[in-house]
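Before relying on records like the one below, remember that each one covers exactly one chain. Contacts with other chains, cofactors or solvent are not represented anywhere in the record.
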Amino acid sequence: MPRESKTNRQIRALEVARRMDARYPQAECALHFSDPFTLVIAVLLSAQTTDVAVNRVTPELFARWPDAPAMAAAAAADIAEVIRSIGFYRVKAAHCVQLAQMLLTDYDGQVPATMEELIRLPGVGRKTANIVLNNAFGIVEGIAVDTHVFRIAHLLGFSPKSSNTPEKVERDLLKLYPRELWGPVNHQWVLFGREVCIARRPRCSECPLRDLCPSATG
């Protein structure tokens, strides 16, 4: 198969964006949160765990420790007990306390609104920072690459096999899409990955992107 030109790849990417907008015009964060602090904690907890599982534990978590001062004073073991149903709960509990303590010492108890400051926080990487910036502050700094976005970017041929980290895939997508289209990519592709492009059993025969996807089967 001849190598696709950058121009043709961009044309496909823009058509994917158009169809995603038509299918998910109101896509938004599936995690439950009320402010930047509860959002950053919820996204931290969601690593390698479903949003549904996180939403089950956060009501009690935020009822007991609703803000940075309260969580900074908590025992990691107590937080771990509340979130023990999610993956890596002990490490995440420790990160919750450490993050809250750093917010108090470095940021007057407030979640910062820049990429550089967010990724300094314990347990926060670019994916988490992108989601927090986008959803809490309306700032679009990049594209949050989780497992769904990572997988779909490769299947669509928007990121080569050599792009084997979320950071590399994000760079590929940022080059491919104009900045004004970065915002909705994560939420739309996550929904698409759950409903159609399912990791273990993709529904290619029903996929609205079938004619745009070089990996489509069935």
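The first helix runs from residue 6 to 23.
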